[in-house]
Amino acid sequence: MDQTRAGFHEYWQETFEVLEGVPARPEIDVLPLRSTPFATLYGVRLTSVGPYRLFGYLSIPTGAGPFPAIYYSPKYQSVLEIIPQGTANLQRSRYITFSLAGRGQRNSDTPYAAMFPGLLTQRIDNFASYVFRDVVADSVRGLQFLLTRGELDAARVVVVGNDLALITAALTKGATHVVTAPALFYHTAELAPKTHAYPLEEINDYIRTFPTRAEAVRETLAYYDLRAFAPRVTATTLVMAGAPGMLLDRIALTPLVTALRGQVTVYESEESTYKDGLYAEQWMAAQCGIKDVQAILPEHWRNLENSISRQR
User: Fold this and answer.
1) Do the Cβ atoms of 80 and 105 come closer than 8 Å?
2) Coil, helix or strand at residue 135
3) What is the pTM of this model?
4) pLDDT tens column, 20-76
5) CB-side neighbour CA atoms (13 Å) of 95
6) Looking at the DSSP assignment, which residues form a beta bridge with residue 160?
7) How far apart are CA 196 and CA 204, in angstroms?
């Protein structure tokens, strides 16, 4: 069944047109302290809708490109990481990486500093001014910037993140692969009442506090439902589902998976940072033609791999 609400396409077309009217005006500075013999790190400032200046970390491998690229779309947390915590720094020797702080996150928190939890419900009772409309534009702007880099291999661009990774790939061109772990905008109005876990508990908190706004919240969430974005996604996609029995497990995400237009792999969490992270790293490496993924894994993951292999 089509999950696209009336006005969905116009809503996002208008958002995109506003973004296109704002020059990115990138400023790029080398960050020597975070550069290594195998990669140079840059601090990047960009303009998104508002206008609003954003900050991101861009890492370029040493040597002759073109290189595959990973775009880490804005996370739902205050801190901006160069690469996700726990990932080996050596990942930067094989991939261009670009991580962006959406408005409100640290380093993109002037003039607006978001609260976590709290951002998810900021102006949620008004779909026209809901804060995530701007955050989505921020995420799209980040991918647009990354695609301007001459060192990049445009045939190997992976967008990694939560719901924003999928939404970004749906709204603009350039993503050849997506790794998405839905957490915010999948069937949210219906699933939030079934959990007390954050971030969806933020929705419940808001409705309890402002019960008369429930219908307005539902209306806003309909513009962000991943099932409506899915038919626009042609990139090869890895969907990171929750463990069996969890709110967003493989079964729950089936309507989303079937709506995606590109090739899809679904991975069910084993509730292990090591096992889940290893699968995602190996999947990205295979998709990008990187043969020596073992060399860029966290050292303790390599040791675990070797230990498990010896036990077999």
Assistant:
1) yes
2) helix
3) 0.95
4) 999 999 999 999 999 999 999 999 999 999 999 999 999 999 999 899 999 999 999
5) 35
6) 72, 179
7) 8
